[in-house]
Amino acid sequence: MTRPPTAAQRRVIEAADPVTGRLRGTQAQLAALVKHGLAFRHARPPHDHFLTPAGHRIREAEAGPGTEAEPGAVAAERPAAAGVFAARAGGEDPAPESGPARLREVRGAWQGMLELRRMTNPDGATDRPCGWERSHLVQAAALALEAAGHRPAGPDGEGGYRVRETPQPEAVAVHAPDAEALRACAATLERTGWQVGEYTEPRTRARYLLASPRRV
Question: Which stretches of 83-176 are DSSP H helices?
Fold first, then answer.
């Protein structure tokens, strides 16, 4: 990109679907965003336009510090700003609100993620993670768990799952309060396209999952 987007183009970027990154605008606006590498036109009908990673970075900057405005929604360890969905990785402080409205948001975000898989996986598959999930591992795993009904840990880190980064490429650690909850998390992740192994933390002897997005 050689110059920043215009005010009109920024408005289109800011109005992108918070889950899928799908764009709405005039053909001229969308074509300009594609030209500058901020959007791409999907090859399959209806040939909708979506934000690229560069476009998402612009949107995040517009949202301001401490917010996430990306598809699938996911601020891993901090609450979302108003109007921005954030999947819960566990341990958020203060504890986010829950209830029917939250359930609807989570279900909508997961359906949006499945649509993003369909639109961006080369073969249109929805049974394995897409490129966005591979670059946002904690957020993607947390969304899969929360959408399946698992309860995230509270601010004290107890009582539910916790998803955390690891030094290993394309892998996250998932912790749960007991063996049964850990097995349930493993089953959910495997069902939603992740490869999962169970390991023991050397220092504490606590069991945890190491999960990676499945490629085939």
Answer: 100-120, 131-135, 137-147
Domains and CATH numbers, the chain: 1-63 (1.10.10), 70-213 (no CATH)
Torsion, Cα of 84, 50, 34, 66 (10° steps): 20
pLDDT tens-digit readout, 127-146: 999 988 998 999 999 999 99
CB atoms within 10 A of CB 169: 8
The structure's pTM equals: 0.67
Evaluate whether 175 touches 169 at the Cβ level (below 8 Å): no
Take residue 10 and report the two structure tokens written for it: 């920024």
Q: What is the DSSP letter of 22?
A: B
- Give the contacts of 204 (CB within 8 A, at least 6 positions apart): none
d(CA 77, CA 139): 9
Nearest alpha-carbon partner for 148 in 195, 199, 113: 113
Percent of the chain having pLDDT more than 90?
A: 41
Dist CA 175 CA 192 (whole Å): 18
Tokens coding 121: 């996986």
Distance, in Å, from the CA atom of 79 to the CA atom of 169, rounded to the nearest integer, reads 26
Residue 214 has phi, psi (to 5 degrees) of -75, 140
DSSP state of 171: -
pLDDT of residue 19: 64
CB 65 within 8 A of CB 30: no
